[in-house]
Design brief:
This protein has three domains: about 300 residues, 3-Layer(aba) Sandwich (Rossmann fold), CATH 3.40.50.970; about 190 residues, Thiamin diphosphate (ThDP)-binding fold, Pyr/PP domains (Rossmann fold, 3-Layer(aba) Sandwich); about 130 residues, Rossmann fold. It has 24 helices and 20 strands. A six-stranded parallel beta sheet has the order 10-9-11-12-14-13, with helices on both faces. A hairpin with a 2-residue loop joins strand 4 and strand 5. It is elongated. The protein starts with a helix and ends with a helix.
Length: about 650
């Protein structure tokens, strides 16, 4: 029996319809509308292997319009991925089902990224396409030549991140990036004409993209557009005119099919109209067999690719495998130890942003997979080093990207590079602009990606740029994100150690907050041990019978040491604790935490920002010293003094507290 496109597409439609109806929750309209486009893509063009979802040279398929998640789950089940069973689909949106309300990244499942917050998948796709270009340049076009396909909705293209990501993609001429725009003209509020009157063709062509307009329900138009896009020398967006809720007599083309189940009566009418005489979740054997044949083609494609790889010399094979492993751990430890010894001997006074640059310069000699960048602040973030080679449209044989003023796009793109595999992205901006990056940082943490965010100008210490640029609540906001390590190192030694931890943290992204102003070298001893690994350590103690425990991060560790000296002159003994990472400290055993922060002493926390992160460490008699109001424009020492962050004022406050 010859199975046609309609029968294959209808299998996708009805799995989606039935799953949403059973869950009594979800978005059936988009899968119904885009089923034809997705079916043509999977049947004729997409290179994938359900038996090995992690095949390096597979095409990446991203459902940026994550609300239509049942489209993806249906395709994975039908093509034979072990990750999604018919029972999983029946449990759509139920506790612990892989078929979550929006796609959630799980390595080796066919779900390439977590999507739902609109525009994010589109940004990830740009990152994956950049990663492919880097790998193709490194290993050759007969080893790496995959494409990245993205399905995006009108909502994806309304979000500002779409401009950031697509503008950079056009600038870099990412020819293996193909985006399907589900141009159904419907959003949750109703017709998109309520809020959008963009000339899409002019918009995307101005970015340097191809723009192809098709009927998203015509097989020949769909496949012709994909073939044309595949041969292009720049990225392509295919505008697919589709009918949301395709096949529904009363809800097709309407917002009512967007975010709610169709209802039992309407589903009966859809079954009748599309001639689908099967029970819920039932796929005719001949249709399922054809879908499985589509999936099985990938095994042969990968086998042929493997034969090509096997003909390459062993050095290329080893290097490719090395990029996808974490084999440099011991070498990294040795490198960090060597660097720490060097700086212990010289004890330099440096801004921690300079310390980070020195760290990157050393580490990049060991890790070629480290790909850096900055949102137009390379000289301020100190993310660009003497080892940085610029990536551009004519040469991807580099390790540094000029992202332009695109913080949100940069962060989503870095997630995409990390998801592609084998690359470790880091990117910089000012800490105040982490607000622009927050949605992408949150997704880095949710997916457990090794992405490293460099945030310089970490406090009022940036001085004259004033309150618009002086972060107050940003560290607290970042620390509130689960599974994100937020580091604020105090000197070159701690910066090296924080970088080492970030590079070893395989399931956790990192944010490293760095100072504009110089800080002295604070460590009295040079040890092989990475003291930052436990989140906090004792820097100096004047007596084991100390009455005060000063806990600080970053530049305020220097301040704590100065306060300690004044207290000592007044016969008050104290302990100074550096806490570069609260998250790591909180994970330590209770006895370690009590040894570091002596609850019998007066606990004083110091950080030039919001005190919210530190309140849990202070008992009834303790003091949180920080800033809970916006900053001032002035030289940084004057700003510190204005907010009472001087050693004399704080020492006096402590002595007064002790007398109470």
């Amino acid at each position: 029996m010859n199975i046609n496109l309609n029968q294959l597409s209808n299998a996708v439609r009805f799995l989606s319809i039935d799953a949403v109806q059973k869950a009594n929750s979800g978005h059936p309209g988009m899968p119904m509308g885009m089923a034809d486009v997705a079916t043509v893509l999977f049947k004729y063009h997409l290179r994938f292997n359900p038996k090995n979802p992690s095949w390096i040279n597979r095409d990446r398929f991203i459902l940026s319009a994550g609300h239509g998640s049942m489209l993806l789950y249906s395709l994975l089940y039908l093509t034979g991925y072990k990750s999604v069973s018919i029972e999983d689909i029946k449990n759509f949106r139920q506790l612990n089902s892989i078929c979550a309300g929006h796609p959630e990244y799980k390595k080796g499942t066919g779900i390439e990224t977590t999507t739902g917050p609109l525009g994010q998948g589109l940004g990830n796709g740009v990152g994956m396409a950049i990663a492919e270009e880097i790998y193709r340049k490194k290993f050759g076009s007969n080893i790496i030549n995959n494409k990245t396909y993205v399905i995006a909705s009108d909502g994806d293209l309304m979000e500002g991140i779409s401009h950031e990501a697509m503008s950079l993609a056009g600038h870099l001429k990412l020819k293996n990036l193909i985006v399907f725009f589900d141009n159904n003209r419907i959003s949750i509020d109703g017709s998109t004409s309520l809020s959008v009157s963009d000339n899409y063709k002019k918009r995307f062509e101005s970015y340097g993209w191809n723009f192809i307009d098709i009927n998203g329900h015509k097989e020949k138009q769909i496949t012709k557009a994909i073939s044309k896009a595949s041969k292009s020398n720049k990225p392509t967006i295919i505008s697919c005119k589709t009918v949301i809720g395709f096949g529904s007599p009363n809800k097709s083309g309407k917002a009512s099919s967007h975010g709610s189940p169709l209802g039992d009566e309407e589903i009966k009418l859809v079954r009748k109209k599309l001639k689908w005489n099967n029970k819920p979740f039932e796929i005719p054997k001949e249709v399922l067999d054809e879908w499985r044949r589509i999936g099985n083609k990938g095994e042969g494609l990968e086998k042929k690719w493997q034969e090509t790889l096997d003909k390459k010399n062993s050095k290329i094979k080893r290097e490719l495998e090395k990029n996808y492993s974490n084999s440099e751990s011991r070498d990294l430890e040795s490198l960090i130890e060597k660097e720490k010894t060097k700086y212990f001997d010289s004890k330099p006074s440096l801004a921690t942003r300079q310390c980070s640059m020195a760290s990157i310069e050393s580490i990049s000699t060991l890790l070629p997979q480290l790909i850096g960048g900055s949102a137009d602040l390379s000289g301020s973030n100190n993310t660009k080093t003497n080892n940085s080679k610029i990536i551009n449209s004519k040469n991807f044989n580099g390790n540094y990207i000029h992202y332009g003023v695109r913080e949100h796009g940069m962060s989503a793109i870095m997630n995409g590079m990390a998801l592609y595999g084998g690359l470790i992205p880091y990117g910089g901006t000012f800490l105040i602009f982490s607000d622009y990056s927050k949605p992408s940082i949150r997704l880095s943490a949710l997916m457990g990606l090794k992405v490293i965010y460099i945030f310089s100008h970490d406090s009022i210490g940036l001085g004259e740029d004033g309150p618009t640029h002086q972060p107050i609540e940003q560290l607290t906001g970042l620390r509130a994100i689960p599974n994100l390590n937020v580091f604020r190192p105090a000197d070159i030694n701690e910066t090296l150690e924080c970088w080492e931890i970030a590079l070893k943290s395989n399931g956790t992204p990192s944010a490293i907050a760095l100072s504009r102003q110089k800080v002295p070298y604070i460590n009295p001893k040079n040890t092989k041990e990475n003291k930052c690994e436990k989140g906090a350590y004792i820097v100096n103690i004047t007596s084991h019978e100390s009455k005060v425990t000063l806990v600080a991060s970053g530049t305020e560790v220097e301040l704590a040491l100065k306060i300690q000296e004044i207290l000592k002159q007044n016969n008050i003994h104290s302990k100074v604790v550096s806490m570069p990472c609260i998250e790591l400290f909180d994970k330590q055993p209770e006895n370690f935490r009590k040894d570091i922060i002596d609850e019998d002493s007066l606990i004083v926390t110091l950080e030039a920002g919001s005190i919210v992160s530190w309140q849990k460490f202070v008992k009834n008699k303790g003091i949180n010293i920080g800033i809970d109001k916006f900053g001032k424009s002035a030289p940084y020492k004057d700003v510190y003094n204005h907010f009472g962050l001087s050693e004399e004022k704080i020492a006096n406050l402590i002595q007064k507290k002790l007398r109470e």
